[in-house]
Design a protein that fits this description.
Elements lengths: L1 H5 L5 E5 L10 E9 L2 E9 L2 H21 L8 H10 L4 E2 L2 H16 L9 H6 L10 H4 L9 H8 L8 E4 L4 E4 L12 H15 L5 E5 L2 E5 L7 E6 L11 E7 L4 E6 L4 E4 L2 E4 L13 E8 L2 H25 L5 E5 L3 E5 L6 E3 L6 E5 L3
Helix pairs in contact: 2-8, 4-9, 8-9
Bound molecules: adenosine monophosphate (AMP) and magnesium ion.
Adenosine monophosphate (AMP) binds next to helix 9.
């Protein structure tokens, strides 16, 4: 079942013949894939259609390989093998991509005071969110999946899996763990990292006008002809039908990425209560501070990790964590229907007219 889900399915391949005044031969070359457990759209504005198709094929293959290599559990993935070695206290040799993931994740984890904690793979497994990709929406709303027991959760929290207990030797690219309870799961920033990598591939191939949207995790370079790449930020209350689908729209500047963490992305219901996939490492339960957190930053990996960390930090601590991670463009939707936007982001977005959301502007500098 899982294999079926990770296979690349080229769902759409569109070359729309839109011409802009100054450059009549430029077109939008677009492809949609299913990889990383989500739909990924690649759009390139170019007059080199064939080369664009080739680079899209390269990026598709890269995404698929990254998804397979970085899967925390699939027995033949590089990350699963690494996790096994770490658990046994062995010294593991890392390939270039795992080395970068570990090195960058360690920095982000430290900056977020361990709220972004890719070492808690055992806790993530305990909640069985991996199974959510395999059940239909109807099943997620029935009692098919159950939360783990208090005792099971506490037992894992007590083992304090943390990135600080990893010993990384940067010159040899070797890694060892001092805590057998560490299981690495890069789900909270792998997509951002992969999007950043794909944008570099595009630039190296000479494409400077493109947009990659990996299931709502987005990065843009250049523009779409004479217009900026424009995106919408989803309204987390939208399931209620009566609401608008988008709470804000934004014209992205060159090299800008926008990443969202939300409690509506992956969840199940049990006995009328919803349990989502972003875990507070301090207590082992889904974090309950916000409905959604959207971060804008040039570095897609940082924006992705920060969206997760700030989601967990909640209303009390988010400003401190944002500052420590070097983030100042933030849009938050609280559990109490409040929209909080930073003064640094506000001029870049147009907020939809939404009377249900009380809006507050906060200065982050
Ligand atoms: P995101 O949607 O980017 O916020 O990432 C959520 C995913 O990251 C989950 O599906 C888990 O695989 C993983 N995860 C959950 N909680 C954490 C956490 N506190 N730190 C790092 N990764 C986490
Ligand atoms: Mg994230």
């Amino acid at each position: 079942m899982y294999k079926k889900l990770i296979a690349i399915v080229p769902l759409i391949f569109v070359i729309s013949l839109i011409s802009s005044c100054g450059s009549p031969r430029e077109q939008l070359v677009q492809q949609q894939l299913f990889t990383f457990g989500t739909l990924v759209d690649i759009s390139i504005w170019t007059d080199k259609t064939e080369q664009a198709q080739q680079v899209i094929a390269t990026i598709s293959a890269d995404f698929e390989q990254q998804h397979q290599h970085w899967h925390p559990t699939n027995s033949n993935s590089l990350l699963a093998q690494l996790n096994q070695q770490l658990q046994q206290g062995e010294v593991a040799q890392l390939d270039d991509s795992l080395f970068s993931l570990v090195q960058i994740a360690t920095i982000f984890s430290k900056q977020s005071e361990g709220l972004f904690n890719p070492a808690i793979g055992l806790l993530v497994d305990l909640w069985h969110f991996d199974q959510l990709q395999q059940v239909s929406l109807d099943e997620t709303n029935s009692d098919t999946l159950k939360p783990p027991s208090k005792e099971q959760i506490q037992a894992l929290v007590n083992l304090h899996a943390s990135m600080t207990q990893l010993e990384l030797n940067p010159s040899l690219k070797q890694l060892r763990s001092r805590n057998p309870a560490i299981k690495l799961d890069f789900g909270a920033f792998a997509k951002g990292f992969a999007v950043e990598h794909a944008i570099n591939t595009l630039r190296k191939a000479g494409f400077n006008n493109a947009l990659i949207n990996a299931g709502g995790d987005i990065k843009a370079i250049g523009s779409k002809g004479d217009r900026a790449w424009k995106i919408g930020i989803r309204n987390p209350f939208y399931q209620q039908q009566t609401d608008q689908p988008v709470i804000a729209s934004m014209a992205l500047k060159d090299n800008q990425s926008i990443m969202t963490s939300g409690d509506y992305e992956r969840f199940f219901s049990y006995k009328g209560k919803q349990y989502h996939h972003i875990i507070d490492p301090r207590n082992g339960y889904p974090a309950n501070g916000f409905h959604s957190v959207t971060i804008v930053h040039n570095d897609a990996s940082l924006a992705d990790a920060a969206a997760t960390a700030i989601f967990i930090a909640g209303p009390e601590q988010w400003k401190k964590i944002a500052q420590q991670m070097g983030i100042n463009k933030v849009l938050l939707i609280t559990q109490t229907s409040e929209l909080i936007i930073s003064q640094q982001l506000k001029p870049l977005v147009s907020l939809a007219d939404n009377k249900k959301l009380k809006t507050t502007v906060v200065n982050l500098e």
